[in-house]
Amino acid sequence: LRRLFRQLEQADSSYPGGLGAYLSRARSLLAASQAGANPFEAFSACHPNGERVEVGSAAFARLEALGSEELRSCAFVLVAGGLGERLGYKGIKIGLPCETSTGKTFAQLYCEYLLSIQSDLAREAASGEGEVEATSEGASEEGRGEAVNSVSAGRSPCVPLAIMTSDDTHEKTVSLFEENAFFGLSRNQVTFMKQGKVPALRDNEAHIATSLCDPFEVLMKPHGHGDVHTLLHQHGLVERWKREGKKWIVFFQDTNALIFRALPATLGVSKERTFAMNTVTVPRKPAEAMGAICKLQKKDGSSITINVEYNVLGPLLKAEGREDGATSEGFSSFPGNTNALVFSIEPYCSVLEMTGGTVPEFVNPKYKDGTKTSFKSPTRLECMMQDFPRLFSPTTP
């Protein structure tokens, strides 16, 4: 019994607001799920604002040049909580080879990109340009002082990297970096943030589930990668990066080797359009089973640009008498979400301070039958990092 209480105490202390808040939220969401409620029911789906840029075009070259100047002002967040089991690999995903000619891992590739940015910063610092950048508009007085002192002392400016891990990946991720001397990065520029789990729920009343083999062991499940925002807040990283003069935070996932190819142009769009949040998207076929970026608009004119899962988008459009049809090029009007995100640090930091980074949750129980009274297996509340726009305004769903 003491073991059970210890698990519950740990769950209570690790969840924002405690276990009571988790269970209260769970009961509300489970009731809505049972009733078949759609969180976006009051909205109409529209094509999102953004830029479609063809690689090799003049527009791409211009935006890439504009964004390349912003790379020095970026902090990076790698979401690496998953294993490669679905790929037939027992280790962590960032330990997988990203190409077969050298066997270079995803982790090494990402670190090499950061080292390349860092080398450019070091060259500028050595030539005296770094001091000008360090005192540029947007950095706080404290941040300016830190940056100037770093340049004048001859230290190479660092590109910060935060890595979110899970129970499944934490030790292996830390070991991978330690065994490879952090792939050339310094130890103090990398922060590991371990994500916790939440109790599983066995019914619509949100009773906590226990193991079938041990009634005194709480069944715990992952809470989703939306926890990355809460962890950044708890570690105080965003405030620190802001003081250091960073302007952008780039989020990317464990096996997205191409994101850095598109990053300069993406930063160029973010700067030119003054986006608080920007998502790298790809062409998506109508009804394709991937999340879609949509602009959801209410009748009063208020709107939110956000990822909508394909199984939600279909019914939403159907309720309006529409369908996820194809354009003349054969693609949907709603581009596919890659979960590569760029945030402007000022609005992001402000929202973190107000909300603690707790992204609105959802529940996705697998019911035994159409009555929706019992589950095939225990469920839990989840959250997704791409749902952060719902925190920008308290009136959004």
TrEMBL record:
<keyword id="KW-0548">Nucleotidyltransferase</keyword>
<keyword id="KW-0808">Transferase</keyword>
<dbReference type="GO" id="GO:0003977">
    <property type="term" value="F:UDP-N-acetylglucosamine diphosphorylase activity"/>
</dbReference>
<dbReference type="GO" id="GO:0006048">
    <property type="term" value="P:UDP-N-acetylglucosamine biosynthetic process"/>
</dbReference>
<comment type="similarity">
    <text>Belongs to the USP family.</text>
</comment>
<feature type="compositionally biased region" description="Low complexity">
    <location>
        <begin position="126"/>
        <end position="138"/>
    </location>
</feature>
<protein>
    <recommendedName>
        <fullName>UTP-monosaccharide-1-phosphate uridylyltransferase</fullName>
        <ecNumber>2.7.7.64</ecNumber>
    </recommendedName>
</protein>
<dbReference type="InterPro" id="IPR039741">
    <property type="entry name" value="UDP-sugar_pyrophosphorylase"/>
</dbReference>
<dbReference type="InterPro" id="IPR029044">
    <property type="entry name" value="Nucleotide-diphossugar_trans"/>
</dbReference>
<dbReference type="Pfam" id="PF01704">
    <property type="entry name" value="UDPGP"/>
</dbReference>
<dbReference type="GO" id="GO:0051748">
    <property type="term" value="F:UTP-monosaccharide-1-phosphate uridylyltransferase activity"/>
</dbReference>
<dbReference type="InterPro" id="IPR002618">
    <property type="entry name" value="UDPGP_fam"/>
</dbReference>
<feature type="region of interest" description="Disordered">
    <location>
        <begin position="126"/>
        <end position="151"/>
    </location>
</feature>
